[in-house]
């Protein structure tokens, strides 16, 4: 069993930029230290644009088939893997949160996070030829600015083009029937989600998270039900199960070790919890994804 790779942002050509643009076919041909065909956790945001080819991409244990005109939005701290296909061409835009936040207002950054949040929308976007053409033109502008015109103005220009690209993706999703709420609770929900991701091995109790957020369990449940239609406990369970899956697939830890690591007093309790939430056992899940 291979330990999970943790991939940090590392632009060797422009280390202080906080942004990088790569062609997928060039990335697939690179001889790099990280094996991108194995599951790896990224510490940056990505937008992947497919211009040619058919294959699939895995994001947190879900396989998404893709073809021409497909776009993926992947947030930092997600685990994903590539499947190298000789016919696949496209672009991958890589950027740090600081790069995004350096130009946008706090409200715009929060709104941008919605596009990358798997609780609020799917990471896979299939676009029409017309919509894709506009997005592709923007990406080509970014490519020219990044590879050919790079100077003191380029960073600001790229940020603005990326800002436009993100809002074009919002528009595509809205046209496809996805509803993005501008409710005041969105930022509270994202704060809760991030808190659970950091502390789910410590506590699974709604009361504890409500206390950490300075609200009542009733208010926290209202926040979650308003934004995603689920209870706070359901969100905690979803996140904890995902973290357990990550340990099962990407570490050599035994089931017993994983149970104790994820905060269970007894391995049998984790076994029952996992089966209740996934309808399979930890052993079977590991075998299916090994």
Automatic annotation (TrEMBL):
Tree of life domain: Bacteria
Domain HTH araC/xylS-type stretches: 208-288
Protein name: AraC-type transcriptional regulator
Annotated source species: Zobellia galactanivorans (strain DSM 12802 / CCUG 47099 / CIP 106680 / NCIMB 13871 / Dsij)
InterPro entries: AraC-bd (IPR003313), Homeodomain-like_sf (IPR009057), HTH-like (IPR037923), HTH_AraC (IPR018060)
An example molecular function term from Gene Ontology annotations: DNA-binding transcription factor activity
Keywords assigned: DNA-binding, Transcription, Transcription regulation
């Amino acid at each position: 069993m291979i330990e999970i790779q943790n991939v940090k942002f590392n632009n060797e050509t422009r280390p202080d930029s906080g942004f990088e643009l790569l062609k997928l076919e060039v990335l697939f041909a690179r001889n790099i230290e990280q094996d991108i065909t194995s599951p790896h956790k990224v510490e940056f945001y990505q937008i992947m644009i497919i211009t040619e080819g058919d294959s699939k991409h895995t994001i947190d244990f879900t396989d998404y088939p893709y073809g021409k005109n497909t776009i993926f939005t992947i947030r930092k701290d997600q685990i994903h893997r590539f499947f190298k296909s000789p016919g696949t061409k496209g672009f991958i835009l890589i950027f740090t949160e600081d790069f995004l936040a350096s130009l946008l207002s706090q409200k715009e950054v929060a709104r941008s996070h919605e596009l990358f949040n798997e609780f609020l929308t799917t990471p896979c976007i299939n676009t029409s030829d017309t919509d894709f053409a506009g997005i592709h033109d923007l990406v080509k502008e970014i490519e020219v600015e990044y590879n050919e015109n790079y100077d003191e103005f380029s960073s600001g220009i790229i940020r603005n083009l990326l800002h436009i690209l993100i809002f074009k993706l919002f528009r595509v999703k809205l046209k496809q029937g996805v509803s993005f709420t501008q409710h005041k609770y969105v930022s509270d929900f994202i704060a809760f989600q991030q808190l659970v991701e950091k502390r789910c091995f410590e506590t699974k109790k709604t009361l504890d998270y409500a206390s950490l957020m300075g609200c009542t369990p009733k208010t926290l449940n209202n926040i979650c039900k308003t934004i995603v239609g689920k209870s706070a406990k359901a969100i905690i369970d979803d996140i904890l199960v995902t973290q357990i899956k990550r340990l099962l697939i990407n570490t050599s830890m035994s089931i017993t070790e994983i149970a104790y690591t994820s905060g269970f007093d007894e391995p049998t309790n984790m076994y029952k919890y996992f089966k209740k939430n996934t309808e399979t056992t930890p052993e079977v899940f590991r075998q299916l994804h090994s």
